[in-house]
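Our example copied in:
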Amino acid sequence: MEGLLDFVLRDILTRSGGIDRCVSEFIRVTNTLLPARSFERIVPELLNGGRTFAGVPVRPQLLGSDPSCLADNAAVLASLGPFGVDLNFGCPAKVVNRHGGGAALLEDPELLTRIMGAVRRAVPTHMPVSAKMRLGLHDDLRAEECALALEAGGAQELVVHARTKADAYRPPAYWERIADIRAVVKIPVIANGEIWSVADALRCRELSGCDALMLGRGMVTDPGLALAIARATRDSGQGTDHRVDAKPQITWHGLQPLIADFWKLVRTRLDRKKQAGRLKQWLNFLRQRYPQAEAAYLELRSVTDPLEIDRWMAAQALGIKRVTRDA
């Protein structure tokens, strides 16, 4: 998710547990061969054996529409040792679609096959190549056709965001349509879209019959969601009477070290002008689940000076120490 789930937030969220693999935000490929440093700038985990510092593998994602150019860039990327290469056929952004990328490609299944085939041939056979798609551009009438086209090109795994480009991010997500896609392809299918809670995850699995789940905004909002889903899935598989808890898996108190570490990474790795905005962006998501995040967001909403946030962070840490000592 461009502008949100970058390497900083991947680092922090993978510390919470329950995440098997990450996919990077897309790396835009136009008509040039990108140097290694361009891939490493967006996916610095490539300099850490392809993993976040918590040890979770990261699969970089490419976005483009030219089979040959994508293949050449995929070969460069593969030489950097990632845990596979992913292709984006789902981005709903107007500027991307206007240039024939992302979800716009779902109007041309034959091109999907050519792109996937070119990238598959350019990447070593031991390295997985996967794809992410939406149900379609304006409607979902060709969803199965597109999935089959990607499989025919050599995709070894398919993530399906269960909405069309026209649906954008408006609920609901049509998880039952993933089941239709899963019925016609032989590769693993991963469900994505509108998974905000354990209850959503269990319902999505039931309706889609998916092999796994991909979390996006739900994980940003509730950093313990993946771990909670993993536990709920394990319990249901063992016949345990699992009660879906509406409370976050990680308490606000337990989240404080992650927020503090997030801010340290932002301060050291991002441009100063973007630092305050990145913290407020995450707090804006967190306040959907944590009342304390609502208070923090309102307190910092007009703050733009990172030094002022440094002081705020120090005060928060001091308050936590006092509460812990009193307890």
Observations:
- The mean pLDDT is 93.
- The chain has two domains: 7-237, 252-326.
- Residues 306-326 form the longest helix (21 residues).
